[in-house]
Amino acid sequence: xxxxxxxxxxxxxxxxxxxxxxxxxxxxxxxxxxxxxxxxxxxxxxxxxxxxxxxxxxxxxxxxxxxxxxxxxxxxxxxxxxxxxxxxxxxxxxxxxxxxxxxxxxxxxxxxxxxxxxxxxxxxxxxxxxxxxxxxxxxxxxxxxxxxxxxxxxxxxxxxxxxxxxxxxxxxxxxxxxxxxxxxxxxxxxxxxxxxxxxxxxxxxxxxxxxxxxxxxxxxxxxxxxxxxxxxxxxxxxxxxxxxxxxxxxxxxxxxxxxxxxxxxxxxxxxxxxxxxxxxxxxxxxxxxxxxxxxxxxxxxxxxxxxxxxxxxxxxxxxxxxxxxxxxxxxxxxxxxxxxx
Length: 341
Hints:
The chain is mostly helical. It is built from eleven helices and two strands, in the order ααααααββααααα.
């Protein structure tokens, strides 16, 4: 949450009280569900890593990014309540880990979209078994790009006492003469690189996938299309509110919006909408793994080996035997589309 720094003289006492009550509770919930959901995805996927296809590898990296991101939330929850008490070094580390995985999660969603687009629209399995290293190189490029993008955070994040809220905070403190320019530039680049371009890419890929599915006679189209719409809508609903508010926040940095009521409302909205963004980390396992029949089969197979919940496993096996070979979001290497959904 931004408190305006040196650019305003407004007090933020009401926002501080809200953050102290709301953020720790919400961050704790996200931490628990994010770690459990994404941890389960990684466990099930890696247990069956010999059979993993290209999208499965991306999903594992996505789950890792989401887990690392939510692992930083307890630190931000503590800051909202007590201020930053962990020192300057940990401030830089936590902020960098948060931003790296924040960016990685979005870019990996784009990789999944492109992979499905090529496999379905052009029936091209880019990362086949003979070229399995390609997907790992793609993930490595994503991680390296995210690390490079976070260099300014590693340099400029620091700890300082903020008199307007009477609290020590961990925030980026850019060079004094260019602080306003830095904040506007980073906000603008974030909106372009981490929201608009990924959204356009996902819309392009999934629109063409839907068109291809509608022309195909091999699929249960309704389920596949519903899942695609859910993926795009979830991304749009989780990310759009924050980016709209962040765009308005640039006007406060440029002194276009100066009155305290507006700046306080924008700060309040940033707290709420950023939480909605983080919620996407808990939705990713549901959208990209849990819905898929392949993942559910592997999960129940893993549970059966541990002899936990035998009745649930037995019911699942009976349903699976009574149905034909099901389709999944992330399962098949078959480039004819049969088995992808």
